[in-house]
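The instructor's notes for this session suggest beginning with a concrete chain rather than abstract definitions. Hand out the sequence below and ask the class to guess, before any prediction is shown, which regions might be ordered.
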Amino acid sequence: MTSSGLPHHDGSELYVARGTPRLGDVVPVRVRVPASRTERGVWVRVVRDGEPRLVPARLDRGDEHERWYVADVLVHNPVTSYRFLLDEPGGYRWLDGRGLHARDVTDAGDFRLTVHEPAPRWLDDAVVYQVFPDRFARSSGHTGPPTGPLPDWALPAAWSDEPIGAGPGVAQQLYGGDLAGIEARLDHLQRLGVDTLYLTPVFPARSNHRYDATSFAHVDPLLGGDAALASLAGAVHARGMRVVGDLTTNHTGAGHDWFTRAQSDPTSDEAQFYYWTEDPPGYVGWLGHASLPKLNYNAAGLARRLVEGPDSVVARYLEPPFALDGWRIDVANMTGRHAADDHTHAVARAIRTTMAQANPSAVLVSEHFHDAAADLVVGGWHTNMNYSAFTRPVWTWVVEPGSTLPFMGLPVPVPRSGGAAMVATMRDFDSTVPWSVTRHQWNLLGSHDTARIRTVAGSRERVEVAVALLATYPGTPVVWAGDEGGLTGVNGEHGRVPMPWDRIDGRPGAQGAPWDVETFETYRELIALRRSSRALREGGLRWVLAEDDAVAYLRETADERVLVVLARDAWPGARLAVTARAAERLHGDGSVTLTPAGLVVGGSRGPSAQVWRLS
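After discussion, reveal the predicted structure:
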């Protein structure tokens, strides 16, 4: 399927002026219509106070290739949805975020203007690096099992041991990575080209993942305590980088001081912080886990302790000496939701308000594994870990043929879909949120909760295709520590592989997981390419090709156009009707031929990634 001859609109600067509108503003919105179309008129359908209205569009300019129409949209509601109506011989067409339709469609895919402030501008340029502290680096340099006083739950592991993937010991296997070890390895992050460090939880807990905090009052002494986090944050900031923390607002650990107080004194304030039941274990746990009692936001005082105001946990770590640059909220989709209770949006807004007061440039990221649209349009979370609109569809396209890997929690293997299915999925989910959210979504090829991308794709070449997508797609690229060296793992726990520093450093006789230098160079090159191009960081997204084994899209700003062509397997090439006078190759070994009818993009003998700057 080639779609370069279709009308197009997105929320980028070519179509909507950059900036956050206010209620009452009139915003011009533009649509591009190829000259080959036969439209007799163009309108914008706007929903105002729940009622659709049609606004006529006027011809703004045109040439032999395309016509541009513009219409004025009144921002009357906090979220103003709109789509385009084209009157053509033989019937009308609707253009929304999912594409062009010769039938009526629901409002779910409409474009959106929002008065809610987007994520901070620094996220436009950011590349994030996720670190699981226990598995990244030890400051001691010791490679055997950790020594010294250890908690009774810990199963000490040597740095080269394979992580337990499932069953007993999976949350107790302790490798002994610490915050000072991360600080000592910041050169690695900068060599890769990332500029934002995202840390999974650093609070004391009864597990290696630390999502079962026993206190929010201080940093885990196993990681070096408060002083180590302050030192790491200071070192990160001194390099012009940023650091984002991880917080559980949905639950605490069963060993948390709030929960132990609640159990010991039913009259205490803390006793109201949780949901209690008559069935064992006597309280509600996250997904039934007794180790993770769920927080109850009906309680007076819980919000003030955790998320609201200058004395909250949220605020404390955004201020010196830690000065974190934001929070990623664990299981944000479940926070505040239980049975008839739904405080999620109130909690998200409270966190954002607190953050704006403590650090106006801080980012608020939700974890939401499925359709997050309803939670991303209300002025709470700035953006989401983009599993639905990026990770899952990309996996289905680059997965190794015949793979038996389970598909992110489903009792089925990862399906192998064609490019059209991947694109349709991405467009479906992208279309449900404003462009101001899409351009900051945290896109990832994997995380500490998933299989490794090298295991999914099965080869270095298909990993390169996936990384090219990550580096050139709208949003914020997130790299899970170790993916840049081809580390493997069949699920989240098994993929939490300690970084093999001896191998990375090239020491003789090095042990640990294999490290792929060529994959590292691919990540480094593609991250650098993204940084060199404003179109790749801020441009719109126009799909121009979606075949089984190849896809292509344009990223465009007012001053730059970049064509990305990706093939997961051998592919003969295609003619694309994209106006261009010249092409400069930015990445890959393919070829582009310019003809009066457009571009002919050279094919490939195997997986490939081509990036071209067009003029």
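Then share the key points. The chain has a mean pLDDT of 97. The two ends are 24 Å apart (CA to CA).
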